[in-house]
Amino acid sequence: MLLRFFVGLALCTVFEKFFPKNGIWGPQNWFVQDTANMGFPFPTFFAWIAVLSEFFGGIALMLGVFTRPAALLNIFVIFTATFIYHDGEIGNSGLTSFFFMIMCFCILLFEPGKFSLDYFINQKLFKRMATISTIVLLILSFNYATGQANGFSMHYKTEAITVDTSKVQFYLKNNSILLHTL
């Protein structure tokens, strides 16, 4: 969590490309010029992509939401900075960008952790999907038991079976400590 938070904070603030300088929001003229010097066909567009991925990707990393896509996008941006802009000089001018690329790669490889919005969202979705799949399974089993199964099910007997389902009741109980709603 700490790595994810501080890398995201640094991406938002250290490179200082999004916040206004000299009255200009977004990529500064020097950054657009550097992007053009690297050979990108639409330097203003790609400068904006880099600035927005660092800023909003950094916020996403800090919060832990869309963590892996944000880390992957920043790996591409920082890879470009390390190996094209700094000519692969990992020991000198490209050291900072190389470290950020490695840290984003570590965040990409490992899950965002329990203290992230991704973890919270995935846990909620998993529980909801488990509940929905249980209900669907029960409905399908009753559909088969009443003799109304579709043609894809296997027929074990050729005679019609009637079952009185008017007295069958289901109760769903929440056994967790925390209150959950469907």
UniProtKB/TrEMBL annotation:
The chain crosses the membrane at residues 44-63, 98-117, 129-146. It comes from the Bacteria. It is a multi-pass membrane protein. Keywords: Cell membrane, Membrane, Transmembrane, Transmembrane helix. It is found in: Cell membrane. InterPro entries: DoxX (IPR032808), DoxX-like_oxidoreductase (IPR051907). Belongs to the DoxX family. This is DoxX family protein.
